[in-house]
Amino acid sequence: MRASLFTRRAFLRTAFTATVLAGTGAALSPLVRARRPRPVTAPAEGVVPVLEETYRGRHIAVDRAGVRIDGRTLHVMRRADGSYLSAVNHFESFATPLELARAAVDELGTGRLAAVPALHHA
Question: Could you tell me the pTM of the whole model?
Answer without folding.
Answer: 0.54
